[in-house]
Amino acid sequence: MMVANGITSGLRRRVGKTHVTCSQLIHIGLAPDGRGVSLRFAGGCRGNTTGICSPVKDRKATEGKQRLGGQNYGTRETSCPDQLAQALEAMIF
Questions:
Q1: Which pLDDT belongs to residue 1?
Q2: What is the bridge-based pairing of β-strands 2-8 and 23-30?
Q3: Cα-Cα end-to-end distance for the chain
Q4: Whole-angstrom Cα distance, residue 13 to residue 26?
Q5: Which residues pair with 36 in a beta bridge?
Q6: Contacts for 47-55 with beta carbons within 8 Å, 24 or more apart?
Q7: Is residue 2 pLDDT above 80, yes or no?
Q8: Residue 19: how many CA atoms within 13 Å on its side-chain side?
Q9: Res. 68: pLDDT tops 80
């Protein structure tokens, strides 16, 4: 899933490629304390992907993972919320 990973301006950053969803990428920036401060989807339904990021922003990545993980979309085995949870999980040390 990972496309790029790094640290800039004190934020751990990750760009992850999604699969089986209409969004293509997730851009994540975590503060040193593990809070999601920069979350954005590329592609997908703008209203939905923006709304998915709202409950996770300014919260610990572990909490975001618990809130969003395991959700599927129809018959698909995953969803945009689940993809975000997987990306957050990969960033948790």
A1: 60
A2: unpaired
A3: 17
A4: 10
A5: 30, 57
A6: 48/80, 49/23, 49/80, 52/80, 52/81, 52/84, 53/84
A7: no
A8: 6
A9: yes
Q: What is the four-CA torsion angle of 75, 79, 81, 87, rounded to 10 degrees? A: 130
DSSP assignment of 21-88: SSEEEEEEEE-TTSBEEEEEEEES-HHHHHHHHTTTBTSBHHHHHHHHTT---TTSS--HHHHHHHHH
| 61: exposed, middle or buried (Cβ count in 10 Å: 0-12, 13-18, 19+) | buried
- When pLDDT is averaged across residues 75-82 and rounded to a whole number, the result is 92
Tokens of 10: 């004190």
Decide if pLDDT at 41 tops 90.
Answer: yes
Backbone angle region of 14, left / alpha / beta, with phi > 0 → left and psi within -120 to 50 → alpha: beta
